[in-house]
Design goal:
With about 100 residues, this protein is an alpha+beta fold. Helices cover about 25% and strands about 10% of the residues. It has helices spanning about 15-25, 45-65; strands spanning about 75, 85-90, 95, 100. Strand 2 (about 85-90) and strand 3 (about 95) form a beta hairpin.
Amino acid sequence: MGQENIILAEIPRSDITLTCHLLNKLPQTVSLYQPMNIGKFSKLESHKVICQEIKIFFQEARASISSGKVVLLKINLGAVPDNNFGETRAQSGLRQSKHRLV
C-alpha cells in the first residue's frame, strides 16, 4: 500500500485526542494532533493554493519523521491537551485556546 494522507476534521469535544492516540498504536501510522495552522488558509487566494499548502505540509512532515526530527504541531506546554480551551474568555465572550503553534 502507498503512503496515504488522511485529515480528520473535528468538532469540539469529539474525542479527537483519543482517536489520535489509538491511530498511533497502528504500525506504519503517525497521527498528529492538530498539526496545521489553519488560520493561514484564510489568507490564501484559492482552494487550489490551500490544497498545495496541505500537500507541502504532509511532504515536510513525512521527511521530518523519516529523518528522526520533530514534527511541528499544536501543543500546550509540551503535552497533547485534553481540553483545547481554557476558562479565560476573550472580549467576544468566546473561551480562548490554550494552544500555541510551535
